[in-house]
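Notebook B, p. 112. Complex prediction, attempt 2.
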Amino acid sequence: MLEALEKHSQGHRRRVPDDTDPEAEDTPAQSTLKATVLRQDLMSLGPDLFIKKYLYDDLYSARELLGVFGINLPDAFDEAPDASLISVLEILLNRDYNKRQKLAHIKTIDDIVKVLQQSKQILVVTGAGISTSLGIPDFRSSDGIYSTLGKYNLSDPQELFDIWLFRQDPSIFYDFAKRLLPEARGYSPTHAFIRLLQDRGILLRQYTQNIDDIESAAGILADKLIQCHGSFKTASCLTCKGSVPGHTIFRDIRNGTVPKCTLCNETRIKSQTSSSSKAHKPLKRGREWETSETEIEDTPGIGIMKPDITFFGEQLATDFKTQVLEDRLKADLLICIGTSLRVAPVAGIPALMPRDVPQLFISRESAGKEYAFDLELLGACDETVQSLAEKAGWETGFQAIVDRGRIRNV
Ligand code: OAD
């Protein structure tokens, strides 16, 4: 390997595998053909053998191979010796090699409907887009939550869910949080579709990033549901960790005020009373007790309630990690719905799946180049799932669940 590197860095002349003049520029058609042939070779040889064949056997330079694979290096690399580009090439070839390839037999909606009808263990990943038809905004659309936070002067809108900022100043979150609370019971046709999968016995699990807990209203069973980012179902005190049902802080949330922990407040009142009545007596439990008593009175973050949603900077629930590693091996179809797939680790679920498991993406916008879904059905997800249900012959069951979920104002 070292020898090959040295030989390479000395700028040995390279043989270009064309029958024509090796120095001649490729036409665009030739470039495309060359890229296709090389990519096929990468897939059949794997990155190590590919590099040996094309780089170390001196057919191409690292720079040329990067070019063939469409990587345009920044100007700063213009004078870089070719050997210094080999590690970049290795990383990129490994990335390309490991990237999922679309399955050849899934090209149309009818193909995916066949897969849907045959699947027995469907893993569904959902995001904010499945609740927008209920009037709950998503995060990253042009009219989403993150576009409306200007007045808070956050350096990044995602700071709304930053645990450090919340500890420092929970009023920013609570000024806004009323907009995150579902104002009505009921669920969308997309929630109904997932419930239909459950009723048909083919829902392996729903991984939702949503904190609105509408899945519960749709009747998704607790053991079928992973609320990856927590939910408003419960709330806990930052100080004593005491947990309460989420609805007990809804009034504060609706009023835009910071909810306080009753338990910590009682302690505060007791300690204030006892310190004034025992003003001349020494504290019995010594310095530590004194300090915590003072903290309870003085620190603004003491006794603040927080809904049990996972903020950036907090650990995801442990059931996510263990369950997803099991489920990836059981699933026979992955469907991602109404998510931009921008937030890890949920965004990594498609890459975790075995390569032969079909992947369907349903949302308004494409998931982007880093994903290789077999099919992307772009548009309003409620309409898309309706048409999937119809084509699968499940329309009656679907419609019955949809009807039960129509919004009733609370
Ligand atoms: P995003 O707002 O990032 O993405 C929602 C996606 O759904 C967007 O790409 C929309 O185009 C699409 N969409 C909206 N309405 C739709 C509709 N009716 N039909 C089809 N598609 C629709 O939301 P998430 O991907 O869920 O964290 O965001 C992930 C996480 O980022 C959230 O869980 C949140 C946020 O920080 C927490 O709440 C803690």
